[in-house]
Design a protein that fits this description.
Acrflvin-R, mainly alpha, transmembrane, 58% helix, transmembrane helix, Efflux RND transporter permease subunit
Length: 48
């Protein structure tokens, strides 16, 4: 049985699987750590 056939025959299953994937995606997005301003060492050149 193909995914398209399964989705047509059992639309509730397709909706539940879609919602499950969305919830997993939102939980994963919440756990991402993004630093707004990372520590960057700016190179300095001195001319004497």
């Amino acid at each position: 049985m193909h995914i398209s056939e399964l989705s047509i025959k059992r639309p509730v299953l397709a909706i539940v699987i879609s919602l499950f994937l969305i919830l997993i995606g939102l939980a994963s997005y919440d756990k991402l750590t993004i630093r707004e301003y990372p520590d960057i060492d700016n190179p300095v050149v001195s001319v004497t």
